[in-house]
Description:
This protein has 17 helices and 15 strands. By secondary structure, it is α/β, with parallel strands linked by helices. The protein folds into three domains: 20-26 and 278-423, Nitrogenase molybdenum iron protein domain (Rossmann fold, 3-Layer(aba) Sandwich), CATH 3.40.50; 30-151, Nitrogenase molybdenum iron protein domain (Rossmann fold, 3-Layer(aba) Sandwich); 176-271, Nitrogenase molybdenum iron protein domain (Rossmann fold), CATH 3.40.50.1980. The radius of gyration is 22 Å and the shape is globular. It starts with a strand and ends with a helix. Residues 1-9 have low confidence and may be disordered.
Amino acid sequence: MNMTSSVRIKSGCSDAPILKERGQNEVFCGLTGIIWLHRKMQDAFFLVVGSRTCAHLLQSAAGVMIFAEPRFGTAILEEKDLAGMADAQEELNSQVEKLLDRRPEIKQLFLVGSCPSEVIKLDLSRAAERLTLKYAPKVRVLSYSGSGIETTFTQGEDACLASMVRTLERTENPDLILVGALPDIVEDQFLCILKQLGIKNVTTFPSKTKDSAPRIGENVKFVLCQPFLGDTREALQDRGAIHIAAPFPFGEEGTTLWLKAIANEYDVDLSLFEKVTEAPRNRAKKALEGISNKLSGKSVFFFPDSQLEIPLARFLVRECGMNALEVGSPYINKKIVMPDLEMLPNGPVISEGQDVDSQLDRCRKAKPDLTICGMGLANPLEAEGMATKWSIELVFSPVHGYEQAGDLAGLFYRPIKRRELLKV
């Protein structure tokens, strides 16, 4: 039986009606997740099976030059592939062979589906199984979809991690897994605090290398670092691991409650918890003081993009004094975000999915001081006189934990300050 433990704070938006919209949406596809995953997994390579458009997206989003040897690439589907005039599986075999000959350091190879490969029904899971048999044990080949038909922005990471869960070895030890790709500096901070709390055998997922991957079992517990990992959560629970539910570690309050949920599961003495967290909590509070005063009373409107929206709204309302008008998210998995929903005060519209024209109308009518949205909407809204923040920046930047609390608030204040200066 899978169990879930949680921090429960009975209030807020947990029972608020959710406005569900199913219309045109404006988001990046799941291929974007490769940009941060390839930096985290140092022995992995992400081979997108797609079009030149896919290649251009990754190249521009990553901001690297073509001779920099990044850990991702694109196997281009040509017109003859799309027309069925060539054996795409044979072409893929050839490309993988050339890649592994040229890059012998690769230990994990991900075949990533795209819109074109989905349209022609190219079976990458079968290809991954076939290539694993050929190159094992040196190289493990896995597949997942980053297609915009099936995934949005951050779901690429979820699909990637979920594909890896079945490969994790078994253990009977009471290990703890931190699930979700984090910047190294944030990961190190969390590991240091957990070590001071006396919690041993802590691993991260994804790990930096295949050989350092976490192990799984019925005595293993895991806590999510990102709110968009629904499929990964289900896959870990299917293998017997126990989910520790908690508010996500954004800001001083969120980070404290996230750590407290873990500490409770491992019976950490309250006095030890207070001693270990006192200094970083005070630093976070001090860093927030100046910026939260400037954000207090300002209104914010979230377009759905990264699935970080609900935890971030909780942070902005409770720790920065902002007024949330609408909190939109591509998907709302209450099994994951309920602790944050419970803490988010009643008032904002909670919306799931998107009908972009309808939401734009609501945003213009609300006239928020700050709008959080994707890059495709930001420039037009800026031209209309609104202050905007790109959602993608909140995924690429170190924003979790105590030491980043002030930086996180600063990301939201800068566009408001810029707009105020432009008015002078």
